[in-house]
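Colleagues,

Please find the record for the three-part complex below.
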Amino acid sequence: MQLIYEKHKEGRRGFCFSKPDVPQAKPLDVKYCRSKDTNIASLSELDVVRHYTNLSRLNFSVDTNFYPLGSCTMKYNPKFTERIAAFEGFSQLHPLLPQLAGGGMLAQGSLEVLYEAEKLLAEITGMIAFTMQPLAGAHGELTGAMLIAAYHKDKGSRRKYIIVPDSSHGTNPASAAIAGYQVIVIPTGKDGYMDLEQYKKYLNSDVAAVMLTCPDTLGIFNPQIKEIADMAHEVGALMYYDGANLNALLGKARPGDLGFDVVHINLHKTFGTPHGGGGPGAGPVGVSEALVDFLPKPRVVRRSDATYALDYHYNKSIGYIAPFYGNFGVILKAYAYMLCLGKDGLIKTAELAVLNANYCQARLKDYYDLAFEKACMHECVFSAARQAKNGVHAIDIAKYLIDKGYHPPTVYFPLIVKEALMIEPTETESKETLDVFIETMIEIARLTEDDPIRVKQAPLNMPIKRLDETRAAREPNLRWKS
Amino acid sequence: MSKMNYTPHTQEDVKQMLKAIGASSIEELFKDIPQALRAKSFNLADGKSEIEVTNHLKKLSDKNATGLINFVGAGFYDHFIPAAVDAIVNRPEFYTAYTPYQPECSQGWLQSIYEYQTAICELTGLDVSNASLYDGGTAIYEAAMMSIRLTGRNKIIMDSGMSLIYRAMLYTYTSNLSIEFVEIPVVHGHSSREELFKHLDDKTAAVILQNPNFFGAVDDHSDVVERVHKFGALAISSVYPVSLGMLKSPGEMNFDIATGEGQSLGIPLSFGGPYLGFMAAKKELVRQMPGRIVGETVDSDGKRGFVLTLQTREQHIRREKATSNICSNEAHCALRAVVFLSLLGRSGIKEMAELNYQKTEFAKEALSKIKGVEVKRSSPTFNEFTVMLPRRADDVVYRMIDKGFACGFPLGRFYKGMENYLLIAVTEKRTKEEICRLADSLEAVL
Amino acid sequence: MNIPKNFFYTKEHEWARIEGKTAYVGITDYAQASLGDITFVGLPKEKAAVKQSEYCATVESVKAASDVYAPFSGTVVSVNGALSSHPELVNQSPYEKGYFFVVSLENEAEKQNLMDAETYQRYVEGLA
């Protein structure tokens, strides 16, 4: 499709402002003004609407395609939460209103949402308190790492290391590193669990924290999680819970009960808020008693007269990590989702997410090698190593699935699994959807034997074929130029 | 009545699926979680219907005051959002997709981001842009970290005319790193050149300036940038994108990196988020940029297409050595921005900036006629300005709420000694009549 | 697999060719083949000091980034500027046009810590 800039025509307008109703003022001194106009495109409103509507149709999305992208929990996003977020009382509220004198009363509805959402998340995870401020999962990780640093500093020790398993999300080591920590990577053993011997070897009083995903990125619940936590606590290290996979545990197990001290949650995964083509997400962080004092400020408190207020009086707080109170619009949608599902609905969510993943695993394990022969939780991880022997790699399988109208699973992650295919169906998909997806996966496995070239040519039915990513990286063209 | 949970499973489905798995019950699927590790509590209310939740939250939204005529800005502005923006971005093919990892089924998103990157480059006058960051504050932090990596130095000089919110965020993020910060005082509305040059040396990684600054003052930083470059440091500008319809761009002042808060580009105020951090830079810095970047390439038939590129900078490949830990960004807000800009077009962007400027000048005139009110005029402004009142500004703000106005931001909240100062923002949404009523009401409460 | 004689090799698949008091440094045919299409090479600055077995450069393909470790300690005399616009030279000619930089040798005896062609050949075969 043409770029919007290639459709520009001088003189067209997609929007008009009201005529100026004030007298013309003295113009700003030219030395402060730009010397030439931008090359932003000018089009009619219809042209703009049609351009982006047609672009949107080139995307796969949850509303149009099955999207079993492992680790991302691409579940259905209930529509009523969109309408709620668009209520003017929420969408047009200036974030500084409660900070004006007397203004606390101007934002009672939004402050209540923040306060109550925090309470719900605390109960769901077994943590004592939450900050709703982190703007995405990785932002939550960084917040968590800073909380951990503040905790140790308060105890008078400056620890150097954060431990992560080699199966972790890339954000874990990246977040630990930018918070000022050195990263120790523990390998995964043959049984699919973090290698405990190696873990013990590296665990000492210079370790600030251990960052784990649970169930882990292989979709496996590590039954030794409590021992791992106990060992960390023995040397004074804290346990960090990457909540990317919380969907599997709702009502079944809680990070707080498992011994975790800091937790981040991806509201856009577990609590059904849309992923928006890459964001916005929200990454609230929950803590155990020992870390409450260090939470970012301000915090939302409920006063004795049942009104809500912002409280800034936390001497040990790490400070400000977001301009305001978090991605409020996202938090609001997640709150509506939680209220709607309630206790039983959330438990059912975990149960059916796990059922769907195990169903895919059971029906595909004869055709693809399992990364580890274990019951899975909310996602199952296969290796296309068997197919790769015939020249069909995970990426080829992904492209063939696109041709068939499926968003592919996550491929080549976790890094420790060769030719990884990570399937997370989520609870909102029906058996029928899974069945036809499974049939397609089986068809690919057969084609790999009979006609591998056919798989390697895919996609053939999309607007474009495979793209030259090497060229994109060697000769970066990152913007249109007139 | 069954409770809502958006799952389609019938009892028969569950039975068949369990059979295929070889499990006797769903509970059996959770057998790897030892009983001792099961949830000790899960004390939540029962689920509610869509009707109940909608009504409950409508009531809460009505408790917020949004009927006030808004003159509060302070970095976050009440601009008009054309209806077509919402119509486009609310298409589920946009908002229920995720990061475009698989380009063949994500060309819509990839091309939109490429167009967004272009728009940001056009506004800022710089060469390359990323696909978005969380907000204006984290964008400054990322730019500061870029400068530290690029120069191998660790001293950052920043303008105290830069939003206190952002400076506070920067301090939090770097509290465990050894970075030296110097804050340059604002004198007569502008950051003091004299003080800045005094601290500028060959240990300086970057100088960060905001334009217009927190007090609304407009500056031409070309001279500062030239001096900064003489010391081998980077110049970073935090800008208000709407102002760039009119003001000299960071590129024209030769800044190395521009960052900013994109909320003003078609994104609702929404009580503080989601917003849009943007970042543009000179092309030679691109390999140190954080976050996703989309590039143009060709497919196997030579047809144009778009992909995520230069991914070796990112956490999913480089892990602890990545340029940033960012993964999810604010793509949907970036889409809002590029749709908003495209609807306005190049003349609309100029017009919008001009309207903001004109209305603000009118407001300055109107308020300067009130006895006891002094409009600060030591520097030119864009759409926000400072007035000194004869009494505490927070008290005045409080009284003005009763009159139906959020009349401005009391500067004493952020700056000691400025208790009588009020920061007033005027956007294209405000009418002459509202501005006159603001002046009348202000006169009445003083 | 091309493994020239008279070169020295590391376990991380760098090579060094001694020429007088300097050595040319690059990555091996095996390394370029396993990385795939090279998209970017991050070279050290001229006059930079490098230390044997320590990080000195970066080499990237579309989906991977690898650190390059110096085979010898010394000072970087010159770098292969052609790689900045033509990283594909590393794929096409890993031992000649695709060299990374030239280092002046601080201590030639460091070659004792490196492998010769035969040993490297066996080492690579052992990895398969």
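Chain B has a mean pLDDT of 96.

Comments are welcome before we finalize the supplementary table.
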